[in-house]
Amino acid sequence: MVAGIALSPQARSRAAPGDERRRKLLARAGWSLSAPALIVVAAVTIFPIIFSVILSFTNVNVTGSGFSIGAMTGENYAEIFHASVWRYALVFTVVYTVVTVVIEVVLGTLLALVAARLTKGRGYFMALLLLPWSMITVISAELWGYIYQGTYGVADAIFQAVGLGHPLFLGTPTPAIISMMVADIWKTTPFVGIIVLAGLVMLPQDVFEAAQIDGASGWTTFWQITFPLLRPTLAIATLFRILQAFGLFDLPFVLTGGGPGTSTTSLALLGYKVMFEDVAFGPGAAIATTTTALVLAGCLLFLRVFRAQVGAAKEA
Amino acid sequence: MGAHRESTLGKAMRWATLSVVVVLIAAPLYWLIASSFKTPVNIGASPPQFIPAPATLANYRAAFEHYGFGRYVLNSVIVTLGATVLVLVLGTLAGYAFGRLPLRGVAVVLVILLMISVFPEIAVVPPLYLLLHRIGWLNSYQALIVPYTAFNLPFAVWILRNYFLGIPHEMEEAARVDGASTLRTVWSVILPQALPGLFTAGIFTFTACWTEFLMALTFDSSNSYRTIPVGIALFGSPNVIPFGTIFAAATVAIVPIGILVFVFRKWVVSGLTAGAVKG
Amino acid sequence: MDKTRRGSWRGSEQPWVRAGSRRAVGVARARRRRAVAVGVVLAGSMALLAACGSSSSTSATSSNSTSLNLADAHGTITWWASPIAQVGIRAALIRAFEKAYPKIHVNLTSAPTNTDTNRADLVNTISGGSSTPDVFMGDVIWPAEFGAHGFALPLSNYLAKSYWAKFAPGLVEGATYKGKVYGSPLFEDEGFLYYRKDLLLKYHLPVPKTWEQLRSEAVTLVHDGAVHYGFVWEGNSYEGLTCDFMEYLASAGGSVVNSSYTKATIDSPAALRALTFMRSLITSGASPAAVTTLEEPQAMAVFDAGQAAFLRNWDYAWANSQTPSDSKVVGKVGVAPLPTFQGRSYPGYSNIGGWNLYINPHSKNLAADLVFIKWMSSTTAQDILGKTYSEIPTVESVRLALAKDPSIAPPIKVAAETRLVPRPAGTPNYPQVSSAIYTNVNAALAGQMSPSAALKAAASQINSALAGAI
Question: For site-directed labelling of C213, which of A115, A175, B172, C353 has its Cα 20 to 30 A away?
Fold first, then answer.
């Protein structure tokens, strides 16, 4: 999904002075073209985000007359760091993100590899893949809640039929977490598959022909050729999936309500509960801010690793 | 992938995997659609009914007549199309500027855009609500169109920029030689090349807006402006979850997206690759 | 192959940005521009913040009660209410009200069916200063939270003591916080024991009067293959479990907090008896293990499908179980008060549910709001709720009168005999208190914690909740 054609830099560095003026004109045109988009984004997102961050550092009491903002304090952060439910939500969200994203990328790649070989029917296959992704998350959660239901759910009936007994899918923490992951993976893997498929389809064929002539096996072909070439695509897919997975909300909200106990309470769900059920906007904003900081840190780390890898691959 | 001589075992495995995948993906979808035809008393039937008997259209009727689902569909269409169009227009301009024009500090802007798309929705909603309340936009179409546009622009700009990066500069050079202005260049030369990227960004935005729940719930709570996700979530009453009606409405909600996705399936794939010069 | 993609997520390097002094100047200029932009944004945000922080809107409290002329009330008000169990209740009430008061028009806003979403929505709306909705129908556990944050008007400032005297005992208390009443009880709800009278008849079993008796009857019926599951109730980790738990707790003689809401009293022998018994329902086979995932709709569905012999649910379950399109057990259902523990007096305690009417502090038509609320407690309105729609009336006189009516739905008749126990909602931190209860009770039911460990954990969490922790 990433492209970049680098034109020969030599041409540009031999620029004449007139080109500099033209460049400035083009730059101005560029900023004016992009200004509307940037303004809309800034107006709608920057203010609330900054407000949220500031709120997290104040003693804010939400009343019928609005937000009465008190003194600046780090109390909200102290409160959430001490709360075991926040520490659990943090670990849970990170583990959940890592596990689901890894599985989705692996399965999605397998899916793409298989689909890439399809000659006819690929379009229909892709349309099918996009359906789960295009479902409203809340509806998907209701559907899976219906499937996992303890007494009349179809998953229970199927497990019974194959002799696996009566697992209570949502009744205890570990099965609940796994069941939620399954629902998430079902909904998102096809989409990851499409992204990888897109990347696969665009790979230059001559490299593969060369490999085949040299007699390389499928496995070798994949690891030595396909995978390195797919890296950028996989990186983007992984990155965006990580961002999404960290904001996990709809699924636990509908499927488990954060339970049993607090075992499926993600950071976003915790933030929602603290803000709207406990009406504590200060700690809630602190949760939101720490979540964002963590995601950013995770992304930057991931990108650093990735760029190092790409650099290493280039030298190889 | 290349024309690879494949063993029959390899082929068989491939078809087996494909079939398993299709079944795994389609099974829950089938369950959703089938359950929408079940009578309320059979929703909780144990063992579960794999084929609804009796099959009934009552749930669909209830969704539209009793819950006014048609209204929600209309609202979703207006809000989603509005936001998508805005995103495409603004995003194309910005994507073109970032991808082809000599701007400094683009990397920083892109990183900021990334940061924005990462911030949890939950934290943004209350201040946004205050803002909308102040300018009197609550319970209106713009209350959703503008925020949706803003939250989907980062991703669209990323996609479109990557796509624009992949278009050879020769095109612009040729147009410039012919004496066209920047805007004209964009419109008649670059845009047609970037169409797949536009479709991709369009589909992503459409899906994101069609399925968004939290903001729609908070900003447009009045019945006349409710969108589909919120409308469905409100079916029933505190102690009664009418699964049949919910699934019926969900099936109806999937149809437009399903059609769109089917029609544009090729574009989605090609649009994601943001064009590369081959060989 | 120098034309291969140089793929990095930042995109390709832009060829025109090259080393040189011009670049340095350009970068500095760009940095300055950026700094200005950031500064503008920050300044703007602070300005908006300041404006929002002191948002003052003409609040209805500025008009004192003596200047309100209720007789002259007119205009349009918005009523925020989630759908009530049966179809058409809200519309019927509005119709009847507008007939009685033609000068006032009521617009209905259908609120979310999920109580928590409903509350979150209202919190957003009211804290944002919106003057609509004017009147909202809210849960009976909201008065403390809403009163403490100023999300609802103290109605006791406007309605005399005589008004409050007409409600059933305990209801007004539940709507009071720090001496002020915030909600006017609209209709009440409580837990009942529903049973399959055909099965009890067939197996010669009496309607159970103690919990222990209920457990053994359920086990018998399951073993004899009469039903799949014996006794289904709401054991999922959510607010509904707090309701169910209160019923066992109260009939064992226990409590959650002391009356001044300063200390948790849940770690007690009575509570241990209650929780141990609840767990034994599952271990003995009287209730399926799946009960720890059931909420009202699921428990109802199981009972409606004829799969269970006993059900604990609210009063809507009667109408639901008698609707042919929803239920396979039409005509086979009986209603009784909840049992109590052996050695204690019958009947057991039913938890109070139901809905109150509150007024938005920013409402612009206080007179019409009060007229609307007062009318809702009139005999006409309460009769519509009770007779036509089988919701339990909150006005005591109507409740007693209807209980004598032979054609009235059984739950209303039984409601006259039940004893009530409220949830410990007299603190603005009730959501955390409730969460401490239901998460630990659920863990004990699922066998993850022993009942005594669960109660200890609940007690400590409740104590910190009362002190205001998240």
Answer: C353
For residue C330, count other CB atoms closer than 10 A to its CB.
14
Long-range contacts of C176-179 (CB under 8 A, 24+ apart): C176/C143, C176/C426, C177/C143, C177/C144, C177/C147, C177/C148, C177/C426, C177/C428, C178/C147, C178/C148
Cβ-Cβ contacts under 8 Å, B233 against chain C:
112-114, 117
Separation in Å, CA of C50 to nearest CA in chain B: 12
The residues with which C114 forms a beta bridge, in sequence order, are none
A280 pLDDT tier (thresholds 50, 70, 90): confident
From A47, A131, A296, residue closest to B115, measured CB to CB:
A296
Put simply, the answer to whether C8 touches A4 (Cβ < 8 Å) is yes
Q: What ipTM did this prediction achieve?
A: 0.81
Q: Which residue has the tokens 């920029």?
A: B161
Q: How many CA atoms lie within 13 A of C421 on its CB side?
A: 26
Residues of A in Cβ contact (< 8 Å) with C5 = 2-5, 232
Whether residues A21 and A103 fall in one domain:
no
CB C6 within 8 A of CB A4: yes
Amino acid identity for residue A281 in this structure: F
Range of the domain at A163: 84-315
- For B159, the closest chain A residue by CA position comes to A1
B contact residues 128-167, partner C, Cβ 8 Å cutoff: 129-131, 133-134, 138, 161-162, 165
Looking at the domain assignment, is residue A116 inside a domain? yes
Region of B63 on the Ramachandran plot (φ > 0 left; ψ -120 to 50 alpha; else beta):
alpha
If one counts every other C-beta atom within 10 angstroms of the C-beta of residue C342, the result is 10
pLDDT tens readout for residues B40-66: 888 888 788 888 888 889 999 988 888
**CA closest to A310 among chain C residues:** C8
Contact (CB, 8 A) for C94 and C79: yes
Which is the CATH superfamily of the domain at C192-352+424-466? Periplasmic binding protein-like II (3.40.190.10)
Whether the bond into C410 is cis, omega within 30 of 0: no
**Closest of C300, C297, C277, C296 to residue C229, by C-alpha:** C300
Q: How confident is the model at residue C61 (pLDDT cuts 50, 70, 90)?
A: very low
- The dihedral through the CA atoms of B9, B14, B18, B20 has a sign that is positive
C69-189+353-421 placed in CATH 3.40.190.10 = yes
Mutate to test the interface with C, among B135, B239, B246 (most CBs of C within 10 A): B239
**What are the φ/ψ torsions at residue C79 (nearest 5 degrees)?**
-115, 120
Question: Which residues are within 8 A (CB) of C464 and not within 5 positions of it... i.e. 6 or more apart?
Answer: none
Q: What are phi and psi of C385, to 5 degrees?
A: -60, -45
In this prediction, residue A210 carries a pLDDT of: 79
* Other Cβ atoms closer than 10 A to C277: 18
**Structural domains for chain B:** 8-58 (no CATH), 68-272 (1.10.3720.10)
